[in-house]
Amino acid sequence: MRGFEGEVAVVTGGGSGIGRAIAAELVRAGARVAVADIDAGAAERAGRELGAEAFQVDVSSAASVQALAAGVADRLGPAAVLVNNAGVASAAPLERMTDADWDWILGVNLYGTIHGVAAFLPQLRQTRGRILNTGSMAGLSPDAGMGGYGTTKFAVTAYTEVLAEELAADGIAVTLLAPGPVRTALGSSSRNRGGGADRGLVDVDLAAGDGAGLRWITAEEVAAVALDALRDGRRYAITHPDWAPVVHARHRAIEAAFADALAHEQGSRSTEQESRSTEQGPDASVGSDADTDTDQGTTR
What we know:
The chain is an alpha/beta fold.
């Protein structure tokens, strides 16, 4: 188990929600925290209230994240903890999503994670640091109507799993945080989106009313799970263990498809062998046995 005392930690999307809660937990654990957010005002408020350094960043821009890495190193020193948490989640059927929608949601959720790792990896190698990427339960089991979001989070899941394998030799632990329903401002993600009106995605507050009958937790509860996983160097940080049956059902369906494919393959081979035997006729095998007996007799 490794603590955070005196370590430099960077949290993107740290101005609100899960990011701010993780930043607060890191400060309490003794880390020197850089709170980074596209909303400069939110970052400054969080920095002031939490006792952290505030930075403005657009994670969809590689240049912006590189500037963040340089600023953190200059003001705080090399990062030992990187939390790629910035994310957006608007809803629409896949057929209604425009290219502008895809550029936006992939730019923040997937490229934001990629840019963070690329910019901070030299510092993390220096400190033998840790990385936490915020995925989602939607990256383990997708939801209709949230296909764009699920696509990005499935990508973050794959990216994180491969990254963990590739950085293990460097002593860098990589964790995937997969939250279920959390009461945050994610339902108003478009508030920081620029561009024109060519969009199919719309903001939906899933937590409104009875919250679609789901079990919603607080950002602070998520932060506690995240820091426990970071301390222990665990590959996965799960906030909703009661959602296991949903993930199991998807995996069972995939396993069943493999079993069906294997049965079909074996059935095809059997049919092919029977077809060959029929074409050769009954005398073919008899002649073969007779030849074998003659050869054996000659050998003896």
